């Protein structure tokens, strides 16, 4: 691990290659798994606030789930996560004509309808954060559904931390990201891949 500010960054974030390949996975990270995306209390409030804007893009089953339990719930591990449909799909998923999963929140943001991009855990994926009282753990979540992203990243020689520059800056700030890049470059020069 590398320490950058108050964060411990897994070496996988530095060493591994990754570029999200939506053409291959069709957004599977939003529809696979056993819980919704981790959200903060503040993000949960924001999701409730923008619900009316994204409502028409949500699937009918997702609307029913939201009406019954809300936009988020506390999962088995005690984490606040987005509500899910059919035991796996995030309630904020929607699909294009080709069957590709999209985020209704991000879609509304890109259309200029809202000022909230999406929860930071979604924006950072496949990085997962674990918050502790004195530091944040920054880990790379490897999952078979993202194999095409690893292949594309290796082909293009883009590492996880490079691909996720924007959300890492959003979460930790530009000065922190610049420090991460310096630490990563020094590590890679010394230890290679």
Task: List its traits.
2 domains, 10 strands, alpha+beta, Rv0495c, DUF3109 family protein
Written overview of the protein:
The chain folds into two domains: 1-18 and 126-193, no CATH class; 27-114, no CATH class. It has 193 residues and is an alpha+beta fold. A hairpin with a 3-residue loop joins β5 and β6. It contains ten helices and ten strands. Helix content is 44%, strand content 17%. It has helices at residues 11-15, 22-25, 41-54, 60-69, 104-110, 120-124, 147-156, 160-163, 165-172, 174-191; strands spanning 2-4, 7-9, 72-74, 80-82, 84-85, 89-90, 93-95, 101-103, 127-131, 136-140. The strands form four sheets. A four-stranded mixed sheet has the order 1-2-10-9. Strands 3-4 form a two-stranded antiparallel ribbon. α9 packs across α10.
Using only C-alpha atoms, the radius of gyration works out to 17 Å
| Major beta sheet, strand line-up | 1-2-10-9
Overall mean pLDDT score? 90
> Helices and strands: which structural class?
alpha+beta
Shape: globular
The sequence of SSEs as H and E is EEHHHHEEEEEEHHEEHHHH
Taken together, the total number of domains comes to 2
Low-confidence stretches: none
* Biggest pleated sheet: 4 strands, mixed
Helix content: 40-55%
Annotation field: number of helices = 10
Family: Belongs to the Rv0495c family.
Protein name: DUF3109 family protein
Give me the secondary-structure topology.
Layout (H helix, E strand, L loop, with lengths): L1 E3 L2 E3 L1 H5 L6 H4 L15 H14 L5 H10 L2 E3 L5 E3 L1 E2 L3 E2 L2 E3 L5 E3 H7 L9 H5 L2 E5 L4 E5 L6 H10 L3 H4 L1 H8 L1 H18 L2
Parallel strand pairs: 2-10
Antiparallel strand pairs: 1-2, 3-4, 5-6, 7-8, 9-10
Family: Belongs to the Rv0495c family.
Protein name: DUF3109 family protein
InterPro entries: Rv0495c
